[in-house]
Design goal:
Distance between the termini: 29 Å
Number of helices: 3
Strand content: 15-25%
Radius of gyration: 12 Å
Shape: flat
Largest sheet: 3 strands, parallel
Structural class: alpha/beta
Strand order of the largest sheet: 2-1-3
Order of helices and strands: EHEHEH
Helix content: 25-40%
């Protein structure tokens, strides 16, 4: 049975650098036993809101973005 992963992406971070190798990353996660659902942020506070609303549905929460994206999503883990 695959583990469920929530992947929060800030598409504006790093000049949209997440696109480089994104397909390969998704394939690696799949091969590693993860069923990954991707959430894209659109503005300030989105990562926190998304994590608060959906993190409990997943085994793992991961982020691609800058420090702000990670910090925002981690607020939920602290609560």
């Amino acid at each position: 049975m695959k583990k469920r992963m929530m992947l929060i992406i800030n598409p504006m971070a790093g000049r949209s650098g997440y696109k480089t190798g994104f397909g390969e990353v998704m394939n690696i996660l799949d091969s590693g036993g993860y069923l990954t659902t991707v959430y894209f942020t659109h503005g300030r506070g989105d990562a926190t809101l998304m994590a608060a609303q959906h993190a409990a549905e997943y085994d793992t929460v991961a982020c691609i973005g800058g420090d702000g994206t990670l910090h925002a999503a981690s607020k939920v883990a602290e609560a």
